[in-house]
Design brief:
With 317 residues, this protein is mainly α. It has a single domain, classed as Farnesyl Diphosphate Synthase. Helix 7 runs antiparallel to helix 8. It starts with a helix and ends with a helix. The mean pLDDT is 92. Bound molecules: ligand LFCQNMSN. The site of the ligand C/C(=C\COP(=O)(O)OP(=O)(O)O)CCC[C@H](C)CCC[C@H](C)CCCC(C)C has 21 residues, from helix 4, helix 7 and helix 8. It holds the Pfam family UbiA. It is found in: Membrane. It is a multi-pass membrane protein. GO terms for molecular function: chlorophyll synthetase activity.
C-alpha cells in the first residue's frame, strides 16, 4: 500500500531511492485523473466524437498532454517552489529530503513542459487546426501553473484566488482542450465551463478547513480564515450546489431535459453528504465528504458534456 502511495504521490508514502520512482512521485499521478476526465467531458461536449482508431489516438494524446505532461509539470514545479516550507513541515518529501538533486528536478520540469507543448502542437497538426488552439491552451495552462506556485504572484498563497485558479484550470482547461480537439470551442460553452469552475472553487476550499490554524498564522486569506468556519462552510456548499443547480436549469432551458434531470439526480446525493459529513464538522470530515460526494460531481460534469454534445448535434452544428 505504501509503495503504491509512493508512486501515486499521496501522503504517507514509503521512501525509495529509485530516482525514476521518485520522478513519478513528484508528478503526483493521482492528480492527473481530473484532467483526463475533463478531456473526456470536452470530447463528449464536442458532439463529434466517434469511436474509431484516429479519435482514440487523438484522445489518448490529449490525455497524455493534460495528465502526465502538464499536470506532472505543475506538480513538480509546485514542489520545487515549496521546497523551503516543505523542509520545515514535510521534510520527507523528495526535494527537501535530498532524494533527488536540484538539477534533476529542473530537467524534469523542462522535459515535462516542453513535452506537453509538443503534444499540443502535434494535436493541432493532426486536427488540421488553422489556429493552434490546443497549443494556445497549453501555453495558457502552463502559465497559470507557474503563477500559482512561483513568486512573485504565487496565487496559492492568495487564499480563495488560488482556489479559483486551481478549480477553474482543473475543470475548464482540459474540457476546452478535449472540445477543441474534436470540434469547435465556442464562447457559450466556455462561459458554461467557467461557471462550472465555481463548483471547482468550492471543492478546492473544502481542503482549506484542515489548515485553518497554519494559514491564519502565515496570514493566508483562505476562505475559512477570512470568514470563520461557520460562514465559510455555508459559502463552500453554496458555491458547489448553486453552480450545479444553475447548470441543470440551463440544460433544461436549452431543451436538454433528460440530461438536466440526470444532473439534478447527481446533485442531491452531494447535498445529502454535505449534511451528513461536511456541515457538522468540515475539519474532521473533509476527506470523507470528498470521497463520497466527488464521484457525483464528476459524473455531473460528464452529463453536462454529453448534454452539450447532444445539443450541438440537434442544432446540426
Ligand atoms: C499544484 C497544484 C496543487 C497543489 O497545491 P498545494 O501546493 O496547495 O498542495 P500541496 O502542498 O499538497 O502540494 C495544482 C495547481 C493547478 C494549476 C493552478 C493549474 C493547472 C493547469 C493544468 C495542468 C494545465 C492543463 C492545460 C491543458 C489541459 C491544455
Amino acid at each position: 500500500m505504501d509503495a503504491s502511495k509512493q508512486l501515486l504521490g499521496f501522503k504517507g508514502a514509503a521512501e525509495t531511492d529509485d530516482v525514476w520512482k521518485i520522478r513519478v512521485q513528484l508528478t503526483k499521478p493521482g492528480t492527473w485523473v481530473p484532467l483526463i476526465w475533463g478531456v473526456m467531458c470536452g470530447a463528449a461536449a464536442s458532439g463529434h466524437y466517434e469511436w474509431n482508431l484516429d479519435n482514440v489516438g487523438k484522445a489518448l494524446l490529449c490525455m497524455t498532454m493534460s495528465g502526465p505532461f502538464l499536470t506532472g509539470y505543475t506538480q513538480t514545479i509546485n514542489d520545487w517552489y515549496d521546497r523551503e516550507i516543505d523542509a520545515i513541515n514535510e521534510p520527507y518529501r523528495p526535494i527537501p529530503s535530498g532524494l533527488i538533486s536540484e538539477n534533476e528536478v529542473k530537467a524534469q520540469i523542462a522535459v515535462l513542459l516542453v513535452g506537453g507543448w509538443l503534444c499540443a502542437l502535434q494535436l493541432d497538426r493532426w486536427c488540421e487546426h488553422d489556429f493552434p488552439i490546443v497549443l494556445a491552451l497549453s501555453l495558457f495552462g502552463s502559465y497559470i501553473s507557474y503563477i500559482y506556485s512561483a513568486p512573485p504572484l504565487k496565487l496559492k498563497a492568495e487564499g480563495w484566488k488560488g482556489c479559483y485558479a486551481l478549480g477553474s484550470s482543473y475543470i475548464a482547461l482540459p474540457w476546452w482542450a478535449g472540445m477543441a480537439t474534436f470540434g469547435q470551442l465556442t464562447p457559450d460553452v466556455m462561459f458554461l465551463t467557467v461557471l462550472y469552475s465555481i463548483a471547482g472553487l468550492g471543492i478546492a476550499i473544502v481542503n482549506d478547513f484542515k489548515s485553518i490554524e497554519g494559514d491564519r498564522e502565515l496570514g493566508l486569506q483562505s476562505l475559512p480564515v477570512a470568514f470563520g468556519i461557520e460562514k465559510a462552510k455555508w459559502i463552500t456548499v453554496s458555491t458547489i450546489d448553486i453552480t450545479q443547480l444553475f447548470v441543470a436549469c440551463y440544460l433544461r432551458a436549452i431543451g436538454e431535459e433528460t440530461y438536466s434531470n440526470v444532473l439534478f439526480c447527481l446533485i442531491f446525493p452531494q447535498i445529502f453528504f454535505q449534511f451528513k459529513f461536511f456541515l457538522p464538522d468540515p475539519i474532521k470530515n473533509d476527506v470523507k465528504y470528498q470521497a463520497s460526494a466527488q464521484p457525483f460531481l464528476v459524473f455531473g460534469l460528464l452529463t453536462t458534456g454529453l448534454a452539450w454534445g447532444h445539443h450541438i448535434n440537434a442544432l446540426g452544428m
